Amino acid sequence: MSTDVRLARQHYNELRQQRAELRAPDYLRAQAIMLGMWPGSGAKFEEIPAEVVTMVLASTGEMDDSIALPRNSAELVLESTGSAP
């Protein structure tokens, strides 16, 4: 019985090591490059003018709640961190 437990633990540790290697940023970067993927040059967020939002609302008759009822910064912090600021 103890041999089975020892072998199971050894196998578990080997799998943990493989998982760590597969999730390593350098490995993921190399795999992505092999698939033809490249890092983005940067991100830019655009603010949607209120006039555009109004036109969409008028043309569709509905609006996504995330736009119609935007969350305040405290709610966003709570959602992303799980604790209030």
Task: Describe the protein.
About 65% of the residues lie in helices and about 0% in strands. It is mostly helical and about 80 residues long. It contains five helices and no strands. The protein is elongated, with a radius of gyration of 24 Å. The longest helix has 22 residues, at about 1-25. The chain has helices at about 1-25, 25-35, 50-60, 65-70, 75-80. The protein folds into two domains: about 1-40, no CATH class; about 45-85, no CATH class. The relative contact order is 0.05.
- Helix content bin: 55-70%
Q: What multimeric state do the chains show?
A: single chain
Approximately how much beta-strand content do the residues carry? under 5%
| Mean pLDDT level | 86
Domain unit count: 2
Task: Tell me the major beta sheet.
Answer: none
- The radius of gyration is 24 Å
Total number of helical segments? 5
Shape: elongated
Number of strand elements: 0
H/E order of the elements?
HHHHH
Uncertain residue ranges:
none
The separation of the N and C termini measures 51 Å
Secondary-structure-based class equals mainly alpha
What is the topological layout?
Blueprint lengths: L1 H22 L1 H10 L15 H11 L4 H4 L4 H9 L4
Key structural traits:
85 residues; mainly alpha; 2 domains; 5 helices; 0% strand; elongated
Concise synopsis of the structure shown:
Helices cover 66% and strands 0% of the residues.
